[in-house]
Write a structure and sequence with these properties.
The chain is an all-alpha fold. It is built from 13 helices and no strands.
């Protein structure tokens, strides 16, 4: 699809109700109001098209920029190009979408290190979202010990940074650091113990979510619940495997 055709498809798929919802969540007025379901269908029909992604982002339309993060080629991302996109961030919806793309690239850890120290609230928030995404990728790939991308010592450093700095950070950065702490704390048992200690020191994290029903989760309870679920899931899988072996 051409850029013109894609923008036309996005505009057609948008609804006024979705526009109101997104605006309520901090997205600006330059949007069509396309649902995530429709964005997923459109991205699937397009496939990977990096040139189109560049054009979609340059359009300035919120929905087009989110779609750009779906169809961009992670292998073609450049540090300079990502820095340019990061400067355009102005809401948490797009920030999370860009972080998801960055986490799929070889630049992920480098961008995390650079962006986490930026004064811009949205760029710093994107950094911690990238770290959360990297932790999730490790688990989804069956590498709970972090051997794919992140090392235990490195993750411990980030837990210590979050513990020391979270309450002094801008609003949205606090939320993303809290989420990163949770993601770090469910990587493995050692990280879980260290993250729980940090969470007890941090205490309640106050975040203003505006006129929405969104809440910042309690890190400790969320980590414990997640780890318990994973342990039980692992036990069920091991039990099923033993049953198959005994039946042979």
């Amino acid at each position: 699809m051409t850029l013109k055709q894609t923008l036309a498809a996005l505009k057609k798929a948008g609804t006024e109700q979705n526009r109101k919802v997104y605006i309520n969540h901090g997205v600006g007025q330059n949007l069509y109001g396309v649902s995530y379901a429709e964005l997923g269908k459109l991205s699937k029909s397009i496939g990977m098209d990096h040139d189109l992604a560049l054009g979609l982002w340059d359009s300035g339309v919120h929905d087009a920029r989110v779609l750009a993060t779906y169809v961009a080629d992670p292998k073609k991302l450049t540090a300079k190009g990502l820095d340019g996109w990061a400067k355009d961030l102005d809401n948490y919806v797009l920030t999370g979408a860009l972080a998801g793309l960055v986490a799929r690239s070889k630049l992920a850890q480098r961008k995390f290190e650079v962006w986490k120290n930026r004064k811009s609230e949205w760029i710093a928030a994107a950094a911690w979202d990238v770290l959360s995404e990297l932790c999730a990728q490790e688990y989804n790939d069956g590498l709970e010990n972090g051997s794919l991308t992140l090392k235990d010592g490195y993750c411990q450093e980030q837990i210590e940074i979050i513990c020391a700095q979270i309450h002094s950070q801008p609003n949205r950065v606090r939320h993303c650091m809290n989420q990163a702490l949770i993601s770090l704390g469910v990587r493995n048992e050692k990280a879980h113990t260290e993250a729980l200690k940090a969470a007890s020191v941090i205490g309640k994290v106050s975040v203003d979510h505006g006129p929405t029903g969104c809440k910042t989760p309690d890190a400790s309870s969320y980590m414990v619940k997640t780890m318990t679920h994973r342990i039980n899931k692992k036990k069920k899988m091991e039990k099923a495997l033993r049953g198959r072996n005994e039946a042979r």
